[in-house]
Design a protein that fits this description.
AKR; 12 strands; TIM Barrel; eight-stranded parallel sheet; two-stranded antiparallel ribbon; alpha/beta; NADP_OxRdtase_dom; 330 residues; NAD(P)_OxRdtase_dom_sf; 11 helices
Length: 330
């Protein structure tokens, strides 16, 4: 990995929380085949984290990397240590049959270094392309937010900058689902990128549009996770409807129904519109939908290649289902 070579991400990468058994378990073989299909379909950037399956996602990616000669771009995250569970119960963080570790927040310098060294071992790599500080923000930490934020400024972000200077990563940034904390950090620290999950989507982007505009002005690259709002924008008929990892509220279900009806009129899958909408903003470097099977990878690849007529975007704006000034695909 050359530190002088510019880092250009593919338009669409792979979010690997599902490879850590998010919601339900998959086999190691299925995970391997999913990663293989992602590479074959141009999704050559993979985002993971120690939190995903308590190390399981990184382990499976590491097993794949050990058997492929393909150039794979990687991002992982720091901010949690994985403590061996021993005889203690493993917490339910939404992962089925996770690895036997307990994730604990740790934004200290030593915690950041230890977290990254654990990722190196599981992934089988010396360096990653992108290193992200995971899950800081008031919605995540509540009353401890100011303490966490101060430690991020004093310890976590400087340690990440040190790892960058050592050639262990090329970009550093945040991996969050809260806009406010991104703005707080960017007021004081120059970041290379932000991975923003679930906040800039076809369903809801009014609050984040100006933030992405500011990122573009400052040269901060944005990676979009959660483009389907926890699957709501891609759920097949009769499937459970989730939003922000819980049952979808009525307003979101109704709005998705309106979005879908417009897409049907123009002959485009709602999921295709959701992905392509996110990628259209000039600040966005990559969109990383999650997949956990070969079929899902192929489906995503098809959605990204679907031709969508300009009239669809025009009608969405006319009906005020998307912002009038939101960038849309050309």
């Amino acid at each position: 990995m050359s530190q002088t070579e510019p880092l250009t991400l593919p338009d669409y990468g792979l979010g690997a929380a599902g490879l850590g058994n998010l919601y339900f378990a998959i086999s190691d073989e299925t995970a391997y085949q999913t990663l293989q299909a992602a590479q074959h379909n141009g999704m050559t950037y993979i985002d993971t984290a120690p939190y995903y399956g308590h190390g399981l996602s990184e382990q499976r990616i590491g097993a794949f990397l050990s058997e492929t000669s393909a150039r794979v771009m990687l991002s992982t995250k720091v901010g949690r240590r994985l403590v061996p569970a021993g005889n203690a119960p493993i917490p339910d963080n939404g992962f089925a049959d996770p690895a036997p570790f307990i994730p604990q927040f740790d934004y200290s310098s030593a915690g950041i270094r230890a977290s990254f060294e654990g990722s190196q071992k599981r992934l089988g790599v010396e360096a990653v392309d992108i290193l992200l500080l995971h899950d800081i923000g008031e919605l995540t930490h509540g009353e401890a937010h100011e303490t966490v934020l101060r430690q991020a400024f004093d310890e976590a972000l400087p340690e990440m900058a040190a790892l960058k200077s050592e050639g262990k990563t090329r970009w550093i940034g945040l991996g969050v689902n809260e806009i406010a904390v991104c703005e707080q950090v960017l007021e004081q620290v120059d970041l290379d990128c932000v991975l923003l999950a679930g906040r800039y989507t076809l369903l809801e982007h009014e609050a984040s549009h100006s933030f992405l505009d500011e990122c573009y002005r400052r040269g901060v690259r944005v990676i979009i996770g959660g483009a389907f709002n926890s699957g709501l924008l891609a759920a097949p008929q009769g499937a459970p409807l989730n939003y922000d990892y819980v049952a979808a509220p009525g307003w979101a279900v109704r709005r998705v129904a309106e979005l879908r009806s417009v897409c049907v009129r123009h002959g485009a899958p709602l999921a295709a519109a959701a992905l392509q909408f996110c990628r259209a903003h000039p600040a966005v470097a990559s969109v990383i939908p999650g997949a956990r099977s070969v079929d899902e990878v192929r489906q995503i690849s098809g959605w990204t290649a679907t031709r969508i007529e300009p009239a669809l975007w025009a009608e969405l704006k006319e009906r005020k289902l998307i912002s009038a000034d939101a960038p849309v695909p050309a």
